[in-house]
Amino acid sequence: MKDELKNFIDNNRSAFDDHRPPEKIWSAIESALPGMRKRSLWNSVSLWRAAAILFLGLSVYFFMTKTLQRNEGALSQVEFTDLELFYSSQIAEKVALINDIDAPGESDLFTQDFQRLDAMYQVLREEMKNRPSEKVKDALVLNLLVRIDLLNQQIKKLEDSRRPARKAKASLV
Amino acid sequence: MEYKGLEAVPIHDELIKRCLQGDRQAHYELYQLYHRSMYNVGYRIVNNEEEAQDVLQEAFISAFRNLDHYRVDSTCGVWRKKIVVNKAINKVKKRRMERLPEDDRWDVREEASADVLEGFPFTVEKVKNAIKRLPDGYRMVLSLYLLEGYDHGEIAGILGITESTSKSQFNRSKKKLKELLEGGML
């Protein structure tokens, strides 16, 4: 059976390689070979580790900035309440002064500007309530300062217009 | 020397280069290309699933670790096969369930032509089962010669026996195989 067996095996050679090793063998081989550069990223444990660390880092970052923002916002809110109280009293004072001097309807342009600023102020104030931040606070303070400046200008204007009248009165006396 | 199975795939120089750079995917591709044939070579020698798995694992780890020693002038398949064969034989030797013949006392006469079977009336499955039933020494020599393509000089070197012992062992193994096949015990 010398040649028959040899021929038979040669002709059916691939059929003799029928055993298949289990998948776990590769994992065992892989783990025994350290320092391999991982090209298949999705199967890489260290990639997942790096991703987890990155995710953790980002979470901490966002949590911190959010908390800081909230703190900053809260701080702006407190700061603003004080500023608003101070400037509002000044504004109220000046408005009262103008009302004393000025006859209503005389300064249309000023009234319009003042009303516009007040409308903007209300919008900003709403924003401050919902999303307090340093920026909104600054805008609110600026609005108040502009209004004070506007009021000061109006007062000066009114005082100037009264002065010649006084002078005239004095000359008459 | 005629090679089959392991050598059917051309040498992948590029793949080996990538492996040497530490590319994991290249290692996996190389494993995918040869694991099945290497597993079967080892399996035929140790004749045991668990040990065949160990042999495959050890052979690949050894092959990957010594990839830089692989020379272009030597055929990649020969080198890989040698690793798996050696690992498998070491397993069998360790097992020591059956000692390999140490001298020419095992010599037998060439089989008479009258013993030659008419045609070959057996299936692959039957031949495989008969090979599995051979004693370790017989199975190793027969597998190395008929399935792995080594000649008797090489088998003598691999098993640490003389060339004539390899020849006589091969003749005995064929006789035993014939008995098993004709005995209808399979």
Describe the structure.
The complex is a heterodimer of chains A (173) and B (186). Chain A has 173 residues and is an all-alpha fold. Chain A has a domain at 68-172. Chain A has 5 helices and no strands. Chain A is rod-shaped, with a radius of gyration of 41 Å. Chain A starts with a helix and ends with a helix. With 186 residues, chain B is an all-alpha fold. Chain B has 8 helices and no strands. Chain B has helices at 13-20, 24-46, 49-65, 76-95, 124-133, 136-147, 152-159, 163-182. In chain B, helix 2 crosses helix 3 (49-65), helix 2 (24-46) crosses helix 6 (136-147) and helix 5 crosses helix 8 (163-182). Chain B is elongated and about 55 Å long. Chain B starts with 12 loop residues before the first helix and ends with a helix. The chains are: A mainly alpha (173), B mainly alpha (186). The interface between A and B is large, with 34 and 42 residues.
In helices, the fraction of residues of chain A equals: over 70%
Largest interchain contact: A-B, 34 and 42 residues
The largest sheet of chain B is: none
Oligomeric composition of the shown chains: heterodimer
Any descriptors?
heterodimer, A: 173 residues, mainly alpha, rod-shaped, B: 186 residues, 8 helices, 63% helix
Topology, element by element:
The complex is a heterodimer of chains A (173) and B (186).
Chain A: H1 2-11, H2 24-32, H3 45-101, H4 108-130, H5 134-172
Helix pairs in contact in A: 3-5, 4-5
Chain B: H1 13-20, H2 24-46, H3 49-65, H4 76-95, H5 124-133, H6 136-147, H7 152-159, H8 163-182
Helix pairs in contact in B: 1-2, 2-3, 2-4, 2-6, 3-4, 5-8, 6-8, 7-8
In short:
The complex is a heterodimer of chains A (173) and B (186). Chain A is mainly alpha-helical and 173 residues long.
